[in-house]
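Q&A log
Question type: sequence-to-structure
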Amino acid sequence: MTISVCTLAFGRERHLANLVRGLSRNTVLPDELVLSVMQSDRYDLPDAPFPVRQIMLGGKGIPLAAARNRAATEAEGDLLVFLDVDCIPRSTCIGDYRFHADKLGGLLMGEVAYLPEGATQFGIDDPMFDRIGVKHSERAGPPAGQSARCHDYRCFWSLNFAMAKRDFEATGGFDERFVGYGGEDTDFGRVVATCELPIWWVRGAKAYHQYHPHHMPPVHHLDSVLANAHRFIEKWGEPTMQHWLRVFVLMGLVERDGDGWRKLRDPREADLELTRQQEDQPYASSAWVLEQLEAQASIG
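Response status: OK
Response body:
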């Protein structure tokens, strides 16, 4: 079995360099790293014991779905491992995915641990990362056994997953009509389920998510979230991202409009401050923001 790692990147040079270093330390090396570059300039990356191919997509917007598809199309491996630019794969990550892929079909979702700011300043250290990395409170943990079926396609998360190239091709890939941020993961999970491919939680295949400031819900991507929410309704006849949209309603950014939502105003600094990841947090939490706003609404 040959293995291609597929990554997409815009900025985040240090994060990407650590991803390459992490892959280079894996006990099972990938046969290649295929990088969809969503900017005008190529990356200057550390040396690696496997080929690294940079596919230049230009610097127009954030074509997340198109970038993942392009990396998968260019990849030559039998197994595709998708890692976001912020990820450092644990030294056993690629080997774990190979182990599970030998036994399971469909889509495999590995573990993710979030690192605090400054965690990588002294280099890559799996035991330390295991101690200080935390599971996202809004994501499932590893299964009790080696693997467990995931029966809710909405749980799919493209940060760290793998599937055979033939299975990926059978789905048609990510829907490139989803442009910018939001909805493309849930849509792909729905497509995988519709194709009757199993979705699995797998133990191991762990990636460490490197700290970077972020907003949750992604109020800074309000326009694309709204556009993609409407696109999902048109395609599937039902909404998605409802927890984010509920927050946006409570913030006064949008309102319900028939079966969809209508934008009322652009985000202000107070909205950004409410959703901004704080320096002492390894991740931003939509659930926390929603809880605060629901509490305020009940008092009002």
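Response note: The first helix runs from residue 13 to 24.
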